[in-house]
Design a protein that fits this description.
The protein is of the alpha/beta class and about 160 residues long. The chain has helices at about 15-25, 85-95, 120-130, 130-140, 150-155; strands at about 5-10, 30-35, 50-55, 60-65, 75-80, 100, 105-110, 115-120. The protein folds into two domains: about 1-70, 2,3-Dihydroxybiphenyl 1,2-Dioxygenase, domain 1 (Roll), CATH 3.10.180.10; about 70-155, 2,3-Dihydroxybiphenyl 1,2-Dioxygenase, domain 1, CATH 3.10.180.
């Protein structure tokens, strides 16, 4: 068990979400599934209560806690991509599985978890600073899914 684990609250689909993440992202897997030892406000004894899983190397627990708490963009996974094909693959997997597009490389999966699908070239431009960062930033601000070629063109003026 990891010393620090991210706990994500789901209404009732933690196991389904964990399985989706495991098949979508490398270095991801589903571990143990814990069933409720008794009835609780939003479930019955024997229902899936918690799921241990890993997303791109990050340890997580999915907790089926009912409809009380909702996800927000205040928490997101940021997935670094190498090229347009990888960017498209993750974006399309999330959005195409009942998710929704947002702005600037952000999207939300069907369970409400926010994802930043961020090409490496964009982060390199931001770290470079100055006019290169400004051009890449301005280009990004016009996008939903990041267009790697457009960011590269912006970086080089």
């Amino acid at each position: 068990m990891a010393k620090n684990t991210i706990c994500l609250w789901y209404e009732k689909d933690a196991e389904e979400a964990a399985n989706f993440y495991a098949k979508t992202f490398p270095d991801s897997s589903v571990g143990s599934v814990t069933r409720a030892p008794g009835d609780y406000p939003d479930g019955k004894q024997g229902d899936v209560l918690m799921v241990d899983f890993t997303v791109a190397g990050v340890s997580c627990i999915g907790l089926n806690g009912g409809p009380v708490f909702k996800h927000s963009e205040a928490f997101s996974f940021q997935i670094s991509t190498e090229d347009q094909a990888e960017t498209d693959r993750y974006w399309n997997a999330i959005v195409g599985n009942g998710g929704q597009e947002s702005e600037c490389g952000w999207c939300k999966d069907r369970w409400g978890i926010s994802w930043q699908i961020t090409p490496r070239t964009l982060m390199e431009a931001m770290q470079a600073g100055g006019s290169e960062a400004k051009r890449a930033f301005d280009a990004m601000m016009t996008m939903k899914k990041i267009d790697v070629a457009a960011i590269e063109a912006a970086r080089h003026g």
